[in-house]
């Protein structure tokens, strides 16, 4: 088995997860990448990150809405690397609709991906971290883990739940050198945000430009999108030994949104 640390970043083929995976690779560690794309599509990324890391980088297209697929993913990580030292639960999705029209299957999908998937990955990762007496779990939550916005019932409920899981697990592993934190970004310009603009425009009867100005950035007092690089830098700090005392926290990076 390798002496390098191993990180698993879920949903690491796009947006925030990709940024964090690249930054961890640059620190020199083994990586497990995950997303919905085929292995062929991700091969150029995998080889680039492997060259950057100096370790081994593997890719799994496990659909994290399926607990059996998550167990398989975690088993692959265990078989290849012995387990994971750093777990970043990042994969997530959004759907925007008034509650009365909210499709049941979208509710279930968001609960599975944005909340239950993190339970299953943590459950599998924690025994290895406890054995090593070191571990880092970072749950990419949202400002919506702390406050609500209309038409995002499933997302807000799942992210509040993810923060509850974060706090509970932090207490359970606090004496074992394992920290568990939630990063709570405001709006970050990624494909996930770009895709929700047309639906938000429809739900609110606005133009897409009005959604960006009056809905998305209206919530952020600094009137700026948070950047992937800023979220990545925070995640790297939480992975460092200097962050050993930070656990069970909801770390906001939202331009002042949750100060309201
Ligand atoms: P994104 O849409 O750019 O990327 C999502 C990633 O998740 C992709 O790699 C995709 O392949 C993967 N994915 C989607 N469904 C999956 C599934 N069923 N199984 C496995 N992988 C799956 O998203 P993003 O904007 O980078 O968001 C990442 C996380 O950050 C999400 O949890 C999101 O809720 C959170 N977040 C985003 C923002 C924002 O403004 N972008 C703000 C706060 C929180």
UniProtKB/TrEMBL annotation:
Instruction: Give the record's keywords alphabetically.
Output: Oxidoreductase
Output one GO BP term: monocarboxylic acid metabolic process
Q: What class of enzyme is it?
A: oxidoreductase
Cite the GO molecular-function annotations of the record: 3-hydroxybutyrate dehydrogenase activity
> Which EC number(s) does the record attach to this protein?
1.1.1.30
| Classification via Pfam families | adh_short (PF00106)
Q: Which residues form a coiled coil?
A: none
Q: Which domain of life is it from?
A: Bacteria
Question: Which NCBIfam families does the UniProt record give?
Answer: PHB_DH, PRK12429.1
Q: Which family does it belong to?
A: Belongs to the short-chain dehydrogenases/reductases (SDR) family.
Protein name from the UniProt record: D-beta-hydroxybutyrate dehydrogenase
Please name the source species: Granulosicoccus antarcticus IMCC3135
């Amino acid at each position: 088995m390798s002496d390098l640390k191993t990180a698993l970043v879920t949903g690491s083929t796009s947006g925030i997860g990709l940024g964090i995976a690249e930054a961890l690779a640059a620190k020199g560690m083994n990586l497990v990448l995950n997303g919905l794309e085929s292995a062929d599509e991700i091969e150029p990324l995998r080889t680039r990150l492997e060259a950057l890391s100096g370790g081994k980088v593997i890719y799994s297209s496990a659909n994290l809405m399926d607990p059996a697929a998550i167990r398989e993913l975690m088993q692959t990580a265990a078989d290849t690397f012995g387990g994971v030292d750093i777990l970043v639960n990042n994969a997530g999705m959004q759907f925007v609709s008034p509650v009365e029209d909210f499709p049941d299957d979208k509710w279930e999908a968001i609960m599975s991906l944005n909340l239950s998937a993190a339970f299953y990955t943590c459950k599998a990762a924690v025994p290895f971290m406890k054995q090593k007496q070191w571990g880092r779990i970072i749950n990419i939550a949202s400002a919506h883990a702390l406050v609500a916005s209309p038409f995002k019932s499933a997302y807000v409920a799942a992210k509040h739940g993810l923060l509850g899981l974060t706090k509970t697990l932090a207490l359970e592993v606090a004496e074992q050198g394992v920290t568990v934190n939630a990063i709570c970004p405001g709006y970050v310009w990624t494909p996930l945000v770009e895709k929700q603009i047309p639906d938000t425009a429809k739900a609110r009867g606005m133009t897409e430009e009005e959604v960006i100005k009056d809905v998305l950035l209206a919530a952020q007092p600094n009137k700026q999108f948070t950047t992937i690089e800023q979220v990545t830098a925070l995640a790297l700090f939480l992975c460092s030994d200097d962050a050993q005392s930070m656990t069970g926290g909801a770390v906001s990076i939202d331009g002042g949104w949750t100060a309201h």
